[in-house]
Structure formats: structure tokens, C-alpha cells
From TrEMBL, chain A:
It comes from the Bacteria. InterPro entries: ACP-like_sf, PP-bd_ACP. Transmembrane segments: none annotated. This is Carrier domain-containing protein. It holds the Pfam family PP-binding. Residues 1-75 form the Carrier domain.
Length: 82, 439
């Protein structure tokens, strides 16, 4: 999941991979809450899932590793519910 | 700074020709870190009565909020004419410079303009609401002494943001910027970016281009900006200085912002709406919602006046007008001008009906119907959610006011700026295309 997020961040938002480590936050990458929400939408498209409550689930202050973990949990929850 | 595409302007009046300024060094050295000896220096007579300052092209300007949406369009015009910029920014300088270059590219700056950032811009990391902007005494004085003008663009623009946070950034931040303008030995010109929405709860009539009494506000943002503007008026009077207050309305661009570049308010709104609606109408329905109509459209009632309007202005037109007014303020002989702050509405001559904005949103989401209603009995959960989620727009669905536009009319009459083009449907459609859909 972390690799997917890094791929989106680098390909969709044009960020140099050299800037990214697991402890990098979205804020560090100048990604605001809207950019973060866009990341979620791209992830939804890629995973074929609808992730609810994206507004409250993530903030620009979380690290990419934390976001990956949260996405993985949401994905598991969504899969279990379907 | 004539617009090359405009016919020859009328000659400037004698009072507007730059006079011999009081500045002994017309090409001041840029800020290069704190002065070794920041002791007091004799202060030149400022741009109050009886003085003039270098034109913008020969100036060094401190710009707060330099990486923001409006500032990027101002710098798009300032950098090519040679203006040197001290960018007052939150981020560390190397990151701020990258953000500034990105914002310029997003605003459509050609490569040669972006390249000027490295040579003409110096980033200084500040904390806007801290005493002396969070700088040491020496750093603060060195920045103040290095500039001919201060352009205060930084602001927190969350309409319904936390009142304390809005106060700290917008009011206390302005106080610190005023202190910077007061401290500079060149007595820098002050340009304060306020907002047309300091008019607050004045729903009808014509808002004048002068200081406004507080008469109720629709959002905490408006109140904070009104307080900030009052500080500027008080400062100019008590310091015996001239200042310029710009009150822009809602600024738009039909360009799709580059990823991570600053966006205009309505682009953010459109993006939020697209995210909110992305799963389609059936996913949004709840027990309290009206059913879809026969064509499968979902109606969302928005509480407002059916004839409400909003002033929307192309950001490039705003930037050109502001810089022309700034140029005038900078080069005007103020011998006979009493100190104080001059207010200019940076607005479109024609208000845009809110229904036209809604129609543009409906064109991008064909299954959506937005209805402006004066009363809304039993709002659905979805309608309440939209109120909350789209608060940046739903706060302004009851306005029918217009704005005095004397300053811009005069510039247009003298062909110093071109009147803005109509904000027509193609422009609105482009401005309201969510970035995600455009990319």
C-alpha cells in the first residue's frame, strides 16, 4: 500500500521520489487536505473500492507510512462489508 | 508599466510623474541577512505629504504570502520589469523558493520569468503573528530598511475558520506588517490586500470605497479582515503616512492549477464538490432526501435569495489593476494629499448571478440540480451536509450588493488598464473544472 501511495504522490503530484521517506508527511510535500483527498480518489479508482469518511480519516500531518496503514485498514473494512 | 496591448494611454498628469524622491539610493541593496550593526539610521521623509518613492520597477518590495494565488499573479508582472522581492514566507527559504517557482509556472509564467526568481527574490522565513514577525531585532530592521514598499497579501481565508486563528493570522499578522512598514528607514509604501467582503452583512446597496463601520458579519473571516483593515486606516492616520487598501472580490482563473500550486477559492470549492459527489446520486440519498426526479437528477436546495449575485473577477485583471494603482501611489506627489489609507475595490463591473454559478456546477455534474430557495422547510441530511461542506460558497447566497468602482473606472477611462472581459459561461466552466478532472 505504501508503494502505491508513493507512486501516486510522485506520478500524480510531480514530487521527486528523493524527497520521500516513510516518515515524510503530506504537509512536508506541500500537499493540503484537498490534495490528500485527491490521493484517496485515485486510490479508490486503482483499488476499485469506495472508501467512506475520507475527510476525517486523514490529515496532512500524517506520514505516508501512517496513511498506508490507515488505507489498508479501510480497504479491509470495505472488503469485509461487501 | 503600460500594457503593450492597450492603445496609448492619456498622458499622466503632472502630479503623477515621478519626482525626485527622497531616497538617496534609488537602487537599494537587497536584503542579505541581518545587518552587522542594526543601529538606528536617520529616516528619510516617507511617502506621506511631500514625497515620492521609486517606481515599482526600481523598487525592492517585501511581499507577504508571496507563494499564494494572488501574489503569484502579481509577481508574474513584477518580476519581468526588474522588481526585487523580499518574500516573507512561512516555509524554510529553499522550500519557499520552490513553491514560488511552482506558483508562477501554474499562473502561466514563461520560463524566463520563473528563472528570475533565483536572481530577484530573496525568501525570509517569518512567523506572521509573532512580534517582529518572529525575526531578531537585527533581522527585522534589516528587512525593513531594505524595501521601498510592503505588499501584504498573506491571510487565512477559511471563511468559517476558528475565530482565534483568524484573528492571529489576519489581525495580529497585519499589525506586525505595519510595524515593519513603520520601521523601514525608506518609509516604505504600504499596500494592504483586504477583501470586498469586509462589507460584511450589507446585503444590498453600493459599498463605498472608504473605511467601513462594522455592521455585522456573515463569517468570522470577514470580521477578522475588517479589523485588519481598520488597523491599516488607524496606522496611516497616526503615522502620518499614506497607505493603499485593495479590496478584491472573488478572484478566479480559467487555468487549471498545477498539482500542489495555489488554487482560487472556487476551484477548491468545485474540487470539494466533485469529491463529495463522486459516488453518484444514489450513494448520497438518505431517508430525509427527496427522491431523484424522472430524469434521474438529484435536487439540492440551497438557502439563499433567488436573485443573489456574487462579484467574480479574473485574477489577471485584478493583478494588472492593483499594480497600476500601486504604481500611481508610488509615483504620485503627495504634497497636497492628507495622510490616510486609500481604498480601491478590485471588482468586476458586473455582478455574476449565483444561478449562473450553479448552472456551471450543474454542467460539470449533470445529475445535480441546485435550487436557490428563500425558505427550506425540513432540510435533508444531504442538504445540511452540503451547507457545511460548501460553506465557502453557501455563506454568500444572499448578497445583492454592488461595489463602488471609481478607482478602476478612472484607470479604464484613461486606458491605463483594460476593462475585464465578461465572466461568461465558458470562463466559468473552465474556472470550476475540478483539477482532478482536468488532469
Amino acid at each position: 500500500m505504501e508503494a502505491r501511495i508513493i507512486a501516486i504522490v510522485t506520478e500524480h503530484f510531480g514530487i521527486d521520489p528523493a524527497e520521500i521517506t516513510p516518515t515524510t508527511t503530506f504537509e512536508d510535500l506541500d500537499m493540503d487536505s484537498l490534495a490528500l483527498a485527491e490521493t484517496v480518489v485515485v486510490l479508490e479508482d486503482q483499488l476499485g473500492l469506495e472508501l467512506p469518511e475520507i475527510e476525517g480519516a486523514f490529515s496532512p500531518a500524517v506520514t505516508l507510512a501512517q496513511a498506508a496503514e490507515a488505507f489498508a485498514q479501510l480497504r479491509a473494512t470495505a472488503a469485509a462489508a461487501s | 508599466m503600460p500594457d503593450p496591448e492597450l492603445p496609448d494611454p492619456e498622458p499622466e498628469s503632472a502630479s503623477e510623474v515621478p519626482g525626485p524622491g527622497p531616497n538617496p539610493d534609488p537602487r537599494p541593496a537587497p536584503y542579505n541577512g541581518p545587518a552587522a550593526s542594526p543601529g538606528p539610521e536617520p529616516r528619510a521623509p516617507g511617502p506621506g505629504p511631500g514625497s515620492a518613492t521609486p517606481a515599482l520597477a526600481d523598487s525592492t518590495i517585501a511581499v507577504s504570502g508571496a507563494t499564494g494565488f494572488l501574489a503569484s499573479y502579481l509577481l508574474l508582472h513584477l518580476l519581468p520589469q526588474g522588481t526585487r522581492v523580499v518574500a516573507l514566507v512561512r516555509k524554510p527559504p529553499h522550500r519557499a523558493m520552490a513553491s514560488l517557482a511552482l506558483a508562477l509556472r501554474s499562473a502561466g509564467a514563461p520560463a524566463e520569468t520563473v528563472q528570475r526568481v533565483a536572481h530577484q527574490v530573496q525568501a525570509v522565513q517569518i512567523t506572521l503573528d509573532r512580534p517582529r514577525l518572529g525575526l531578531s531585532e537585527g533581522e527585522f530592521q534589516a528587512v525593513a530598511d531594505s524595501v521601498d514598499a510592503v505588499l501584504h497579501c498573506a491571510a487565512l481565508t477559511k471563511l468559517h475558520g476558528d475565530a482565534g486563528e483568524l484573528h492571529r493570522t489576519n489581525v495580529e499578522g497585519t499589525r506586525q506588517i505595519l510595524a515593519l512598514a513603520a520601521a523601514g528607514r525608506r518609509a516604505p509604501q504600504l499596500f494592504h490586500v483586504s477583501t470586498a467582503f469586509v462589507a460584511g452583512a450589507r446585503l444590498d446597496g453600493v459599498v463605498p470605497e472608504r473605511q467601513l463601520e462594522a455592521s455585522g458579519f456573515l463569517t468570522p473571516y470577514e470580521e477578522s479582515k475588517h479589523r485588519a483593515e481598520r488597523l491599516v486606516h488607524d496606522w496611516a492616520r497616526t503615522q502620518g503616512r499614506c497607505a493603499t487598501v485593495f479590496r478584491p472580490s472573488v478572484l478566479l482563473s480559467d487555468r487549471t492549477a498545477l498539482p500542489r500550486a495555489p488554487q482560487h477559492t472556487y476551484a477548491v470549492l468545485a474540487a470539494k464538490l466533485a469529491l463529495f459527489l463522486r459516488h453518484g446520486p444514489r450513494a448520497l440519498l438518505d431517508a430525509s432526501s427527496a427522491p431523484l426526479d424522472a430524469t434521474g437528477r438529484l435536487t439540492i436546495r440551497l438557502l439563499g435569495a433567488p436573485d443573489a449575485s456574487i462579484n467574480l473577477l479574473q485574477v489577471d485583471a485584478a493583478a494588472r489593476a492593483m499594480l497600476r494603482l500601486a504604481e500611481q501611489a508610488t509615483t504620485t506627489d503627495t504634497s497636497d494629499v492628507p495622510p490616510g489609507a486609500r481604498v480601491h475595490h478590485i471588482v468586476h463591473p458586473t455582478e455574476t448571478p449565483v444561478t449562473r454559478v450553479n448552472e456551471a456546477l450543474q454542467r460539470s455534474v449533470p445529475w445535480l440540480r441546485l435550487a436557490l430557495v428563500p425558505e427550506r422547510p425540513c432540510p435533508s441530511g444531504l442538504e445540511r451536509a452540503v451547507d457545511l461542506y460548501g460553506a465557502e460558497a453557501t455563506a454568500y447566497l444572499g448578497l445583492r450588493r454592488r461595489y463602488e468602482r471609481t478607482s478602476l473606472c478612472e484607470l479604464e477611462r484613461r486606458r491605463l488598464v483594460r476593462p475585464p472581459a465578461p465572466v461568461d459561461n465558458p470562463y466559468l466552466d473552465a474556472a470550476l473544472t475540478p483539477p482532478l478532472m482536468a488532469r
